[in-house]
Records
---
Amino acid sequence: MQNIEWSTLPFGYLPTNYNVRCYYRNGKWGEIEVSSETTINIHMAATCLHYGQEAFEGLKAFRGEDGKVRIFRLEENAKRLQSSCDGIMMPQFPIEKFEEAMKKCVQLNADFIPPYGSGASLYLRPLIIGTGIRVGVSPADEYLFLVFATPVGPYFKGGFQANPYVITRKYDRAAPLGTGTYKVGGNYAASMRPHMEACQGGKYACEFYLDAKEKCYIDEAGAANFFAIKDNTYITPLSTSILPSITNKSLMFLAEKMGMKVERRPIHVDELATFEEAGACGTAAVISPISRIDDLENNKSYVFGDGKPGPQSEKLYNKLRGIQCGTEPDEYGWITMVEGC
Ligand code: PLP
Ligand code: COI
């Protein structure tokens, strides 16, 4: 076990021991390889550098109270990576290889898995890049898959603590029929200026985008989906330009199991005024409760609750965390156990 101040870890990069790689050449993926190099050597005409042929994922491994190590919803991340690959003309990475790579990466970096109760976890960041040479715009013929691990704390300030968010009307992140449903680097490049301008150096935790066509429905935040609660109903946007969040999918399922109604539909900005609770959700964000959303251009401010996380959000958070850390049973097959850690 490393000598790290686990409970104050930020969401950032800390060097670990190994990463895991796999190369696509001559029309097929090779064997999983282990590397201790933290750099990659690629051709200057690689498609990832010029035309953004890059997709990534984010998933977490948790050490439980029982000392065992669990990865949450690995197969869902593997499938979403395949969908992102389809979206930008990269070869799909096989699900079995994805599982092998994630397990190996966790095992090899077991010293860096934060202890149970620290609030931190081991974040896995798989990615695929086009490494083949192209100058005209077309897909590469060679690719690199890589996954590294790094221990992380909360993405938004304070973790499960309510923070203010802001609506950005000046920019769109993704077009209705664009790449918003894929986890590709270009979407995040597109969010950097809006984030910097809207969040005003940390005044707001994150920016919310509206649908690009009508500019009146909530899409999502730069790094998380949106959900709200009213009248015992879990409500989350239906949109063709947002990432299908695996955390949100899990929360919709759990909300229903916990006796709530679930609605996935367009959410008009005006409806924000009617919500009892609101939150941002994602692997990095987990559930990050929202205290307030400011719509500065319209001079409006929507306040949720009394500045503390709401009761339904807290119930969902505890259930999700419980499954991830093994204090709640894995009734739905969401957990992959990692042996030998
Ligand atoms: N939306 C965006 C833009 C994200 O970057 C993320 C993070 O992965 C999410 C939503 C949440 O998705 P997930 O719950 O699968 O991590
Ligand atoms: C995640 O939640 O895993 C993300 O990828 C969000 C952000 C760090 C890009």
---
Amino acid sequence: MYAQVIVDIAHAQVDKIFEYSCGDDVREGCRVKVPFGGRTVDGFVVALSEKSDFPPERIKPVASVYDEPPALGKECFALMQGLAQRYRVPKAVCLRLFIPAEMRAGRVHEVYKKVVRLKSSDIALSKTAKKQREFLEYLNSCGEAEYVACCESFGRGAVNSVIEKGGAELVKIKINRAPGGYEEGQEEQKVLTPAQQAALKSIESDGHTVQLIHGVTGSGKTEIYLNVISRALAAGKTAIFLVPEISLTPQMFSQLKRRFGDKAAILHSGLSAGERFDEWWRLKSGEAKIAIGARSAIFSPVENVGAIIIDEEHDGSYFSESAPRYSTVEVAQMRAKYNGCKLVLGSATPSVESYAKAVSGEYNLITLTERINGRPLPHITIADMRKEVKRGNNSAFSAILREELADVLEKGRQAIIFLNRRGYSHTVICQDCGYVLKCEHCDVSLAYHSDENCLKCHYCGAKYRMPRACPECGGLHLRYGGTGTQRVVADLKQLFPSARILRMDVDTTSGKEGHYKILKQFADKKADILVGTQMIAKGHDFPSVTLVGILDADMSLHFSDYRAGERTFQLITQVSGRSGRAGEAGKVVLQTYSPENYILRYAVNYDYKGFFNNEIDLRKTTNFPPFSLICRVMVTAAEDGAALEALKGVYFGCEALRERTPNEFIFLNKMHSPIKKIQGKVRYQVLMRLASSKLLPKIYDLAVQYSTAKALAYVEENPVNLS
Ligand code: ADP
Ligand code: ZN
């Protein structure tokens, strides 16, 4: 037999299929070790054949086979081809997506516990063997027990003697490391509303592969997804359910576990390596049928997929930020086509691009306009911060927000305060010379963190001591600029000394189940106010929350990026959706310095269609996506010289393309990236706006061609983040 092997090396030069001879222990899809260029490397068997075209003396044998069932299925290889072609990355890099990192590194294995089990209770024991007799009696009463625990209680010698004499045997039992973080319990039966039924019917009978559900927050989208999954299972198939990482909350787990029990496997970053590994194998073996997770769960090893669901489809986290820089919706479409199943996208604020596809008929559009039980959407009040400043209020809170907070506290309800900046202050500025404290490795200002009394770089994580004086001029008047979550908590404590306040941001949620602990405390009403970043915007269902304060709605509005308006609209709608989800009507206070902005006007009225029509007109007249494609080739390197070399290569390559097809280019230029340095690497870019995706493959080729050992060039399409 001969095995066609892709070696696990991420390099374009070895991105081929190599042939090795093998025995019948090698199966398609399994991992092997093979001799390669004088050493032994890991490889994936993509196919087997009886014959080979090479002369036998040139073929080497497979060195060894991993002792595990084949990890890769047929669909992986089909997707690998599609991804490698689309994103110009070596096939090995694509295959890695399908296998848990822990497994490739060989760091995690199945775990077993050793158990002693009773074999015979009447074996001859000497009179003096007191411990042995005690152990045997104990085992007689319980049948089996953990080996380690027995050794602790009765002594290793006694336990081993009983085993030797045939009184007990040692067995290995596989432990399934099941992730926790959810609550058991019974689920209340729900009768689908007519709108939910109509949505389900549409998903089942409509001919489009992609179904877009546009449903206001609390309109029962999740319930529709769960029904789509149930139906896939009933048809003997599997399902994939994707949500943004931060929506993978305990509430979500609990809901899914109650509905689907052990059929659901949950993959997320809070799991230990062992747990993730075991959940993966449960999916691979077919024991679990539903893969639930963030972006990377689109590569779950489920077979015969009956439905794929992407919740909050507009979320930026669905774009991968490392190679291959794939769009999850695109990969999901590939899988849906391969399996002949539906892809359901859902959001209260679909991305302009997706909604445009629905309007043009490429996707089927399903609209849910009302919340379950007709609960009203929370009323949004705009607080004009310019007026507050005029009145002499320089705090982070408008008068109206303070009043509403006092009311919530008095009534024993809960409030959420949102702002998208962590730390105490965003910058530290010297008032004498104007110097702004910056990171040594990145071209960004440092944020002050009051809880650790230090400065942190939010790009590379570097920590610095807070200086007493300005490092430039020695001046002693350092001022904190820009409010962060820590400062908001400090200010709230002054305003409402008896209020119990929780903070949720990157700094408070590290560690396993960090999110869970904070959300649980808030859900259990151990706090009155939750202050947080983006993390609190999504998916949480806290019935007692009747007030949401949005402190810096403007921040994203002023980004110099074509998606700024879209993002602001999405953020306001998502955060507002946290208020008034149960009985009491909810309120939202939206603080802004530009109250007349049209995006805010649409957001306040929950007028998605109005927003969309306006936005799509704007994009059309200005020729921005979806009417064009923004393409950026990023170049990063430790040294300027190497970066500029690669930059020039890519840029002149693009120029040559423009000469041949001038109409394809709306814009082309090369420049420093907005942030000139991150983690010690300089950053440059070739930025272009293209009329279509026609030239993309050529641009990907240029990036590969000019990447060197010293400089990396890579392509980003309509990048979420242009920094
Ligand atoms: P969305 O995902 O659109 O924000 P959810 O699916 O979370 O909305 O539903 C909002 C609330 O309504 C949840 O508390 C959910 O349990 C409840 N709900 C959903 N569908 C029904 C139904 N058919 N009957 C009763 N309650 C429902
Ligand atoms: Zn830094």
